[in-house]
Amino acid sequence: MASIADGKAGDIRLLMGNEALARGALEAGLAVAAGYPGTPSSEIIETLAKAASTSNLYVEWSVNEKVALEVAAAASFAGLRSLCVMKQNGVNVASDFLLHLAGSGTRGGMVLMPCDDPGALSSVNEGEARHFARLVEIPLLEPATFQQAKDVTRWAFELSETLRTIVMVRSATRLSHASGTVTLGEIPPNSPKAKFIHDGFVLDPMEGPVMSPPVAYKHSQQQDKIEKAAALFEDSPFNTYEGPENPSLMLIASSVAGLYAREAIHLLGVGDSVGLLCLATTWPLPPKFMQKYLAKADRFLVVEEVLPFLEENIKVLAQELTPVIGAKTFFGKRDKTLPGVGELNPDLVAGALSKILGKPYVPVSQEYSGKARQTSFLGAPSRDLTFCPGCPHRASFWNIHTVLSTDNRQGFVCGDIGCYSMAVLPSGFSTLKTLHAMGSGTGVASGFGKLGQFGMDQPVVSVCGDSTFFHAAMPALANAIHHGSDITMVILDNSGTGMTGFQPHPGLPVDALGQQAPALDIEKICKAMGATVAVCDPFDLNDTQETLHRLLEEGKGVKVLITRRICALSPERKGKKLFEMKVDSNICLGENCGCNRLCTRIFRCPGLVWDAQAKTAKIDEVICAGCGVCADICPSGAISKTPV
Amino acid sequence: MSELAFDPFNVIITGVGGQGNVLASRMLGNVMSRQGLNVTIGETFGASQRGGSVMSHLRISAKGTWSPQIPRGAAHVVVALEPIEAVRVLGEYGNPEVSVLVNTRSIYPVGCIAGETRYPSVDEIKGWVSSLSKKAWFIPATDEAVKIGAAILGNVMMMGALAGANLLPITRQTFEQTMAATLDRTRLEANMEAFDRGFSLAR
User: Fold this and answer.
1) ipTM of this model?
2) Which chain B residues are Cβ-neighbours of A605 within 8 angstroms?
3) What is the pLDDT of residues B149-193, one digit of tens each?
4) What domains does chain A contain, in order, with CATH numbers?
5) Taking the model in full, what pTM does it have?
6) Where are the alpha helices (DSSP H) in chain B?
7) Nearest-CA distance A422 → chain B (Å)
8) What chain B residue is nearest to A344 in terms of C-alpha separation?
9) A376/B88 CB distance under 8 A
10) Are the beta carbons of A180 and B65 separated by less than 8 Å?
């Protein structure tokens, strides 16, 4: 399918969860979508951006999640339907505006769509967006299947317009990045008119100014909306029950955990006695509906990812209902029947069921599984993450690592989120020593750089990517400059948002829709802010290392080194070698060389391997990206590069 | 064959970032979907281009949507685009009845390149996979793909091998129709050449 907007009502498609979510928004008559890239959410905005040429849509990759939410909110204030997409921790960034938006209310249907990452498959946290829905008092929907991903999203816009508040639709990796069969609905003709009406009565939600004060009044309205939402959820078709009328145990699940729960019941063959209630409307819970199902059983297992959010909300309700339905027993995360960290899977749920029911679950004979696990453990060496062949970050960290080692003052690097987070690993020469949120490398460095007063004399370096620079590092840089913090900030400029699939950012001359856009110049910005700035090509090892040495020795104040080289996976670079690389086995001394296999033992590029028979280094032609950097690493000059 | 041997039929496609694992699972999923079957695919691809292991779980069913993660010990077919990834997957999802197709071209983990861990010999891997499966095919897909011009076609060749092994109802015609939806003529021809070669290698 060329565009998610193709296809008519009734067509059956195999869609990725993120595509189903995007389709749902189009079927709701979406006009504006904004987001910031982050796995597993990025394909939603990408899918909508591709559809924008044939649908009347405005789609943007905003500078960060807070601005994305503000951009989408403006569309809602002007009467349009709008969507804001981000990964879980993006909601942390957007939360200040979200709190105020929940207070001010919305006009056109507006949906906040965070994609959580249980198990941190592509994250450095497993934060949960769901808690924000309860915290700022907005409705929360959690689709459980691919069909629901589309249909719940579509309904969320209507709900938002009915209640005049933003609605959260929460996805998770195993929904967003999984695919399933979906029956399409119709995309309505879409030609909405935008107008912001602002001169009505000050308290008029549709015609007055949009704001959260007067707080007492708006807050009470907000709570009325939540009560209305609970009432609307009472007969939502997206909450489903399957199983016997009076089960001996009822599983209550949300999101994709519902599919694990169903499979676990199937694996144990207990469908006759165990029921499954899948809830899509998880905040606020519909009290009458919950009362009906809580009355059906005495024991419940709550299946959800990651924290016991649903479990706790159900328990509060069950406590309030005790006089009517009696006391109930709950299993879940709080009693450790299911783990409180990491993602779930059918086996974990089957294991929990097995424990509660006292029924054994043995998926495969112990003889086979013992042998298979041992063979796998001993025979399949682990595959640590590493920078891609030809990645400019490998060269940048080689340079930083080499300079800090030879500088010999125990300097260190503070980092944050991007491919360059991998510099905590040996593949990045274990260069990063702090790793937190977007832009935090420079913020933390700004603090370290003020500790000279207390005797700290180590060089302080921070790293951030070009997209991260605009997202959250600029305020940190301003702080460091204003306070005269002694740091060197290295901006790893690979001309795109590399980690998530090379989305554009304000530093590039193109936007999400592929249209020309003014590019902001990072070098000029840093100079204008007051930093000493140098620009290097990280593949030029000598120049980069000399420059970094010089900046470190300058001591006082903020220095910025931009290492600029486009990502090896960028459309411009992917599959194109700069050089044909070759190891001359007559020159490579192998294990007899004093370098002690520097190239493979330390540099660790997947394209340069060790030939155990010849006992020399060797280029893997299939993997090598031809960047040429290893030729400058080899002390014997055994690696040659020939321009392609 | 025209019907599923099991329902759901569980296929794991495994490999290393950059091998076209996700595309292969999409191809197979679309081929099955085109034949009116329900397909659920679970993918772990956050680390897909960063040298990590990548695994796709396909559930093919006439009955409906299944969990995007296959339960332990429940794989019917494992397609490994890289040899040790077959061994890794069998540890968790293997069973005595599983069929395994292995691309024999190794991609060395950085730990092996650095000399910290040992990459087993091809013979060792063949022995392990054979002893942990009902039937195993070892296909030099990347090497053959390099011969026809592009290593990346190794994934398509393995899909051809899967069709040739006659484990799932995959016809050349449906595969070609599926690929034609996204590829131009020249690339389609190259892909079908890879498919055909893989098909005959598994026969």
Assistant:
1) 0.95
2) 113
3) 888 899 999 999 999 999 999 999 999 999 998 889 999 999 999
4) 12-233 (3.40.50.970), 240-357 (3.40.50.920), 392-564 (3.40.50.970), 579-643 (3.30.70.20)
5) 0.96
6) 21-34, 83-93, 110-113, 122-131, 141-147, 154-164, 172-180, 185-201
7) 9
8) B69
9) yes
10) yes
